[in-house]
Amino acid sequence: MEKLIGDFSIGLFFMQAVILVILILLARKFAWKPILEGLSKREEGIQNAIEAAAKAEAKMKELTAQNDVMMQEARAERDAMIKDAKATANGMIEEAKSKASQEAEKVLASARETIAGEKNAAIAELKTQVAAISLEIAEKVVRGELASDEKQKALASKMAEDISLN
Amino acid sequence: MTLAQNSVRFFIGLMFTIGTTFAFANEQHGHEGQHEAHAVHAEGHEAHEEAHGEHDADHGGHGYEGMIDTQEEIQAYKEHHLQDAHDFVLFSDNEKGTHIGFPLPVILWDGETGMHFFMSSKFHHGETVAESNGAFFKLAHGKIVKTDAEGHEELGHPIDFSITKNVLGMLIAGLLMIWMFGSLAKSYKRGPVPTGIGRILEPLVLYVRDEIARPNIGEKHYKKFMSFLLTVFFFIWILNLLGLTPLAFNVTGNIAVTACLALFTFFIVQFSGNKHYWGHIFWMPGVPVPMKIVLAPIEVLGMFTKPFSLLIRLFANITAGHMVLMSLIALTIILKAQFGAVGSTAISLFLSLFISLIELLVAFLQAYIFTMLSSLFIGMAVEDHH
């Protein structure tokens, strides 16, 4: 212990104190301050960059989600449109079909009417002609019957007979 | 910051203190002559005991005369290394008495004769008396004392503000720090990511900020203390590492240096203490009044023991590390008789390489623990009441 105290040099202690104070002051001015400032500046920069990246990512996610929603909406809209179109088309086809069958019906009906009309006309004509022919025949027959007196007498008697019979 | 976390950190710190203090104590016991001494000293211990008194008597410049190959000369060399020095010697040729290195400036304040400024070469490595402005000084046990012209009589102890080897080491560490971290600071002007050496330094600065200051002091207050903590951390670490180079600085193993560092922590803690901190010391809340009275002196003592533990821990760790490393290197001489030159060198090389790796870890660990405990103490002082 005495040796330790004996080794203690006040001068060296003083020199050390002076050197340490000067060193701390110099180092603070020329080294520690700029170094620590540089470090914290860089760390802030990194922190900001990380935050910005996180923000960008969040925004990206939001955008993607928005996109998805829009896509879904568009898809749904498209589906609805296709459905509508199909329905319209079907409707039109149905309408057309029914219209066509109606038309056909109408044509048929008018055709039938015409045919019936023609037939009736033909029948009427035929009837007239048959009546005319029948009259001619009857005239001819009557003319033959009434050609001589006997025959007229015979007819008259016969008729008379018929009348009496009745 | 939770209390449990704090106490875990505190106990880690305590563990290192105790462990290394014992290691150091072993070394000290070795000096005092107890026989449980370090393995290195076991061989030829008796001889060392006997020689101990002698070498103390003529320590100044001892070990420069002749080869260092005996137990006591090794011991003297070790002690010489652990002390501060007024010149910077890289190699010594002891037979010719020449030293390769350079002298350092000596600055003295003496009450009677005022300031003295001269180069340490005037001492001729402790062999002669140096004259300055009519006063005479000599080196004794690595310290400068005022003497008469012949150097026989001690007239007093001037205050020694010399640029000693330790001061030089601190200046080198300081300049290294300003240069390295200054370049890191400049690199932030060019871009957000540093280049070159800054890529190594930046994680270290981040480590101190995020692993030491923030968790211990708290998010709200830590910024104020960053300059001190960063400076102390790198200052201690660089000096510890400088101590492992062949330049052989032993700055952080000097008690005056660690005392100064710990004192800085002490004053910072006391000056930044809020009213809860002082409340906890003088009038502990939540305990009965008699306990408050008992606890107050204990807490006041605690104010001083905390930085004192910092002082001793760093000093003991680094001193013990240097001591063990030098002892292991010395094995090459001590074990020569048993294993031959090659064998003892191989053992010494292997063991000192191993301990050097551990010392490399300790160099970081001690800087870490000093800074961490400093910030823990600061954290206790500025903590908001909850």
Automatic annotation (TrEMBL), chain A:
Q: Which residues cross the membrane?
A: 6-27
Superkingdom as given in the UniProt entry: Bacteria
Keyword set includes Endoplasmic reticulum:
no
UniProt cross-references to CDD domains, sorted A to Z: ATP-synt_Fo_b
Which InterPro entries does this UniProt record tie to the protein? ATP_synth_B-like_membr_sf, ATP_synth_b/b'su_bac/chlpt, ATP_synth_F0_bsu_bac, ATP_synthase_B_chain
Q: Which residues form a coiled coil?
A: 46-80
Q: What membrane topology does the UniProt entry give?
A: Single-pass membrane protein
Q: Name one GO cellular component term.
A: endomembrane system
The GO molecular function terms of this record are: proton-transporting ATP synthase activity, rotational mechanism; proton-transporting ATPase activity, rotational mechanism
Subunit architecture: F-type ATPases have 2 components, F(1) - the catalytic core - and F(0) - the membrane proton channel. F(1) has five subunits: alpha(3), beta(3), gamma(1), delta(1), epsilon(1). F(0) has four main subunits: a(1), b(2) and c(10-14). The alpha and beta chains form an alternating ring which encloses part of the gamma chain. F(1) is attached to F(0) by a central stalk formed by the gamma and epsilon chains, while a peripheral stalk is formed by the delta and b chains. F-type ATPases have 2 components, F(1) - the catalytic core - and F(0) - the membrane proton channel. F(1) has five subunits: alpha(3), beta(3), gamma(1), delta(1), epsilon(1). F(0) has three main subunits: a(1), b(2) and c(10-14). The alpha and beta chains form an alternating ring which encloses part of the gamma chain. F(1) is attached to F(0) by a central stalk formed by the gamma and epsilon chains, while a peripheral stalk is formed by the delta and b chains.
State the protein's name: ATP synthase subunit b
Organism, per UniProt? Lishizhenia tianjinensis
TrEMBL record, chain B:
**What InterPro entries does this protein map onto?**
ATP_synth_F0_asu, ATP_synth_F0_asu_bact/mt, F0_ATP_A_sf
Q: Where is the signal peptide?
A: 1-25
Output the CDD domains linked to this UniProt entry: ATP-synt_Fo_a_6
Looking up Pfam families in the UniProt record yields: ATP-synt_A
Major place of localization? membrane
The topology of this chain with respect to the membrane is: Multi-pass membrane protein
Task: Tell whether Ion transport is among the UniProt keywords.
Answer: yes
Q: Name one GO cellular component term.
A: proton-transporting ATP synthase complex
Which family is this sequence assigned to? Belongs to the ATPase A chain family.
- Give the species this sequence originates from: Lishizhenia tianjinensis
Query: What role does this protein play?
Result: Key component of the proton channel; it plays a direct role in the translocation of protons across the membrane.
Q: Transmembrane residues, as ranges?
A: 167-185, 225-245, 251-269, 281-304, 310-335, 347-370
What would be an example GO MF term here? Answer: proton-transporting ATP synthase activity, rotational mechanism
- Can you say what this protein is called? ATP synthase subunit a
The organism sits in which domain of life?
Answer: Bacteria
Where would you find this protein in the cell? Answer: Cell membrane; Membrane
Q: Which UniProt keywords apply?
A: ATP synthesis, Cell membrane, CF(0), Hydrogen ion transport, Ion transport, Membrane, Signal, Transmembrane, Transmembrane helix, Transport
